[in-house]
Design goal:
CATH architecture of the largest domain: Alpha-Beta Barrel
Radius of gyration: 17 Å
Shape: globular
CATH superfamily of the largest domain: Aldolase class I
Distance between the termini: 18 Å
Number of helices: 10
Helix content: 40-55%
CATH class of the largest domain: Alpha Beta
Length: about 230
Amino acid sequence: MELGVPFSDPLADGEANQLAAERALAAGMTPLKVLDLAREIRGNHPNLPLVLFTYLNPIAYSTEIDFEEFCFEALNAGIDAMLLLDLPPEERGTEWTNGKTYNASIKAANLPLVALIAPTTQPERVPKLLESADAFVYYVSKEGVTGEGDEFSAKFAKNIEMIKRHTHLPVVVGFGISKPEHVRAASGTGVDGVVVGSAIVRRVESLSKGKGTIEELKSFVSSMTAATK
């Protein structure tokens, strides 16, 4: 389960997630409150893997605690891994305060990271991206931002095969997956998991407007899960 930290400038996200971030920020959500939510989820679901989906700014410069403390707090709250959308390997060695680098602080907290690989990633760059991953690999199925779509192309099996030659980590795919048939197509490419985000967020948006029901949301998620089998 991805738990998103709302940010005012989510450049990698499409409209659904942008609007979700706006709603969350308007309601007073903060990075530390997201960790409170993680603790609540962890208490109710001890075995559910939790991934913190975030940009660097809100967790490094917008809280009452510093970046390293946040990493420790995330781990203590039950977060299993962190997906940092805008911190590529080249920037992880950047010093953020008093001789400490982002990478050193992440490693100090022993917080596993997720690697992002795009369809435009050059093959020679893949090993470098994988060096900094210790949770799983997220393959982005299409260029652009997150979001749903009526059409989904699963012509990336060769890319998955290439990635798996360089890592023992699980490889999942996301972006543009919004229907059970999309999940079935993605599942046939050799991936270990399929990410569905915006399609669920849209249904949460409808709930916020008094449309739909929790049961309908559960039914949709169940249909997507069933399509992986």
